[in-house]
Structure to design on (228 residues):
């Protein structure tokens, strides 16, 4: 059973377009992280959100944590070919904190064509 | 900075063979974990450890054993490999906190079981 549902699973867009990736769950999370992974490498952390309703910006990337801390979104403005990669959301389920365990979504493969 | 080091990077096994995937971290992190990554399924937690001498099962522990004799090392053992264990395996480490902190991943070990 996938606790974190990520959508879409695949996205192919042209350079300059905007996109949003969603991460949804029926569970409440203490925190939610977004990772980016390139082929042949391990995931690398982009951002952690911990407060319901929190919005964080990282250059052209905007991350939002839902008010109820059950969902999150990643919005990319004016996507560039360098944004191509696998994006993963990962949640720290309430009650499992302080154990180093994260539940991951299925991932979104993003391809940005020049 | 070495960070998290996994060996081997690639391995081909025959059904029934055993092997150990090695993982070492030099960041003095208390928490370490093993994930497997399969297409369309994100990362799934196999086993994790909150400190030397302490391990616990994750979401998909069957067919795998772990031990944690030192803070630095967290090997993953496959006792009798099966084709269903063909996957990419990632080791990760992190530090304790109020919520799960950033996971630092190795580059992965790609295992094929014939």
């Amino acid at each position: 059973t996938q606790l974190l549902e990520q959508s879409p699973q695949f996205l192919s867009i042209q350079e300059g377009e905007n996109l949003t990736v969603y991460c949804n769950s029926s569970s409440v999370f203490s925190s939610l992280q977004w990772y980016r992974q390139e082929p042949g490498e391990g995931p690398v952390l982009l951002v952690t959100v911990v407060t319901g309703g929190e919005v964080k910006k990282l250059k052209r990337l905007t991350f939002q944590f839902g008010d109820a801390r059950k969902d999150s979104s990643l919005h990319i403005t004016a996507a560039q070919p360098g944004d191509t990669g696998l994006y993963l959301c990962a949640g720290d389920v309430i009650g499992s904190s302080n154990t180093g365990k994260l539940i991951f979504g299925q991932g979104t493969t993003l391809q940005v064509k020049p | 900075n070495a960070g998290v080091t996994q060996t081997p990077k690639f391995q081909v096994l025959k059904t029934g063979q055993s092997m150990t995937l090695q993982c070492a971290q030099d960041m003095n992190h208390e928490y370490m974990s093993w994930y497997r990554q399969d297409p369309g399924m994100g990362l799934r937690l196999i086993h994790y450890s909150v400190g030397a001498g302490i391990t616990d099962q994750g979401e998909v522990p069957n067919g795998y054993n772990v031990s944690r004799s030192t803070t630095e090392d967290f090997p993953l053992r496959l006792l009798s490999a099966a084709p269903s264990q063909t996957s990419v395996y990632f080791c990760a480490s992190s530090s304790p906190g109020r919520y799960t902190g950033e996971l630092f991943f190795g580059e992965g070990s790609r295992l094929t079981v014939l």
Chain A is about 0% helix and 55% strand. The longest strand of chain A covers residues 29-37.
